[in-house]
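pasting for the record
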Amino acid sequence: MKENYIKDLEKANVAKSSFLAKLSHDMRTPLGAIISLSEFGLDECKNQNSLEYFKKIKDNSVYLLSFISEVLEAKKNTSDNFEINKNVFKSCDVLNQILSVVQQRAIVKNITFTPHFISKDKGVYLYSNEKMFKQIIINLLNNAIKYTQKGGKVDFEVNANIIDNKLVSTIIVSDNGVGMTKEFQAKMFEEFTQEHNKLSFEEEGSGLGLFIVKKNVDLLNGTISCVSEINKGTKFTIHLVIDVATQQQINSLKDSFNKERLELLKGKKILLCEDKEINILIIKKILYSIGIIVDTAINGFEAINRVKNNTYDLVLMDIRMPVMDGLSATREIREFNKVLPIIALSSNAHPQDIEDSLNNGMNAHLVKPIDKQLLFETLLKYI
């Protein structure tokens, strides 16, 4: 009986993983298209009002994509040996993106939202995990707005100073909303927990917001505290110490967009293996912008034949395709061509997906939606 139970449990876990992987892929794909199209609008539009619309579309879509990833992979990145992927980002740009996401919601609820940024250098470049940093603040602000009645107020304060090449920051999010009971505060950082009150039935949520906040604060070696009282409001205080980016790291970020380096890719020929028409349009437009010649295949079988009969500098290979998937196609190509760079370009974002790509003969795995900077860096590395 016990063995059967274990087998059934294993089958259920496999089925759940498969379902979540497909769900993640199917949700990330259209969101990736929205983000890329909004970026085209930002690049090409001359009307200032329209530029603001495109910016808000992009910022909110990026946040929604991040939220979906967290919901589908809530237990990810909690192991003791997990290493944070760090990147260079500008503090004021991130704060402006955060405001773009949350301000509109405050307006809709007629909530007075007041940001206070107290810093001697608002344009400092940081070296940390930008995604985690944004998730901490956005989740706290969304919760504050969610659990504050119409006509209430939410305050957002960031106090930061640079000490010994570190940004020492205190982030405070406070509101005069419904507050939390002492009983709920004892378990508020557990996943899928929500307190039932007069606003929780009106506002939908996953119960993951504070779980994500606490997880990210811990991973960034910060601290978080909370003071809350029923019908009087809630105040969260976070202390974070973040590395200031070195000049070399900043130069590396800026060099990624150096047009002189991108000139090296002009005239190179790439095979794009992708079955979604909107993705083909987006990727072609990005590659054409730097002078790359693009050939296309809509499934793995077609890709194999094109590689056999043509010369390419690199292949961008989707994973989930009809007729033949990208992994199978890569294995067959490797039987007759060991040196052609093949880069996975997929909505499959789980670490296991990346490992599968590398184990099946690909040189690297890029996740959709497409990060142009990372795409260009990868092309420069392998071509």
